[in-house]
Each structure stands twice: as C-alpha cells, then as structure tokens.
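Reopening this one. Same input as before:
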Amino acid sequence: MTVILRRVNRVVLGLVGLVLVAGGGGVLAAGFDLAVPTWWPWKGPSDVLLSRADRLRWRDEGWWWPVVIAVLGVIVLLALWWLLAQLRRARLAEILIDTGDGEVATVRGRTLETVVAADATAQEGVSRAQVSLTGRRTAPRTRVALRLEPYASPAAALTTLATEALDHARTSTGLSSLPTEARLRAVKHRARRVT
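Same output, byte for byte:
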C-alpha cells in the first residue's frame, strides 16, 4: 500500500509540476512577446491576466476579496503541509521476517520501537530513549535518540545500546543486521552549588 501511495504521490507531483511549468512558461512567453499557441488566452505583453471588468465585477460585494484571500491562504498552507510531509522520513509499519520454512512473519514496527526504547531506557544513565524504524520492510534501519543523565558515559551508553537493546532486537527478529544511527543528548540540569 505504501508503494502505491508513493507512486501516486510522484505521478500527481509530476503532473502538477508540468502544469505549473507549462502555465508559467506560457505567461512568460506572452510577456516577452514570443510566439504562443492560438488557443492561449494571453497573446502579448499588453494583455493582462485579469481584465478591468473581471477585477471590478465583484468590487461591490464585501465578501469577495476576503474569500479569495482565505482560499489562497488555505491553498498555501496545504501546500506547505504537503511539502513537510514529503520531507519527513516515513516510519515502517511492519517488518517482514523470514521464518526459514518459506513463510514470512510480520512484526509491527511500533511494537519493535517500543521494546527497543524500553531496553535502552533500562540502561544505567539513560533517562529517556526514542526509537524509530526506517528503511525497507526486509532491511530495516533504526534511529535512536538517547537522553543521558549528567553522570552517564556516552561511550558506555553506546556500547550497552549496541550489545543489549539492539542485539536483542536483531536476534529476536532474526535479522542479520540492524544498522543504527544514534544521537546522544545530555539531560539539562542545574549546576551544583559548592559551599
């Protein structure tokens, strides 16, 4: 389903881009007095996108321009939302595991994220852990964000994460490898007062 949505997204994006490029190119060609097709509504630099009659048609209606501005604002907000959705990395909904007998089992991505986060949080010196799965269903990758207590050793936290939490996840799912990107941050704390 994700692959289909991704393909539909790309096709729609390509069509919208093509329409915008063609429309913008036609307006620029007319503006520079270049040859444009006969069916094109604007023929030269003296033509305008909205004629005076079109601009003044709704002038006496108090609701017209606020509605136009509101609709354009909603379109801009939807376009920005869509852009941010494209930039966000998709999380895996499930992982496919080869059971060895020719069948495939699935593990929910959120479940594995929760288990790895619980294992990582149980480590000494880790106050909080966030885990997200990315990549392909047959070759997942993990991103782990650890918040370390002030006394925690970053090297020890990474070693324990790799040898315990990630190793447990890898062996329980039967994955040969589980590439991981780890980010460490220290918990904010007040400086101690010395008396």
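So the earlier flakiness isn't reproducible anymore. For the record, The first strand starts at residue 94 and ends at 98.
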